Amino acid sequence: MAARFAAIAPHLNERQRRLWVGAEARVLGHGGVTLVARATGVSRPTVYKALEELDVQPAMAHAMYLINLASPNPNFQKKSREALAAELTRAESYGCRYVVTHVGSHMGDGAQLGIDRVVATLDQVLSSAGGSTACLLETSAGGGAYVGASFDDLAQILGRLPQHAERLGVCFDTAHAYASGYNVAGADGMRTTLDKLTSIIPARRIRACHCNDTSVTLGGKADRHTKIGTGNVGLEGFRALLHYKALAHCAFILETPGDEMLEGQENLNALRSLL
Fold it and tell me: Residue 60 and residue 135: Cα distance in Å, rounded?
């Protein structure tokens, strides 16, 4: 139970990361944290030392949102490869275990062509990027032509890259799942969805969960996060997630609205009260 408690933590933006390195981590009792690895204002050695001294595990970075691994545009595809490789390198220097990235959009070319490009891009990046930091593909809300809203999309990508199994996994986002049509509302809805998820993607490949409630209607394909327990997922939905044995190894990260040093404390407490 203690390890599960320590694995619930917030996502910090650039300003918050500068505040976080130091006393705030002790105040909030972070056991894990998501950093924006491009943030400036604190040196990498300082962050690395703080993570180590405060025993923050796992630390992970969130890649820039402009990355599109499924893009049909050769120039943008090249920039996305370079950006993801740089994210992995920076995250490694901070001592982060994972980099979470959105998969991207096929821009109307069709899901399969988009997946093919994602597979080729990830193979190139992970074959050339040194270190051990792993890349986690985040489940999508399904808007537009985005790849990754379907668990099957992500399973196909993982299945076609067995040579990178140790450095490639999935980050399950509760709000995105609901928006893309997976009913994670309440205890029964969450358990049913997680049973489906882990029947398609091996549980060991799901290494993090973004814990976000949402005001979007089921299948609404929009990315709108709200305070834990006030949206469609509800407290019982999150309780079921936190107690789902197959995902006990995961880090549970908050991406809720507001300042994570203020409203974030309420959301952190709300999740931890469910353990």
Answer: 10
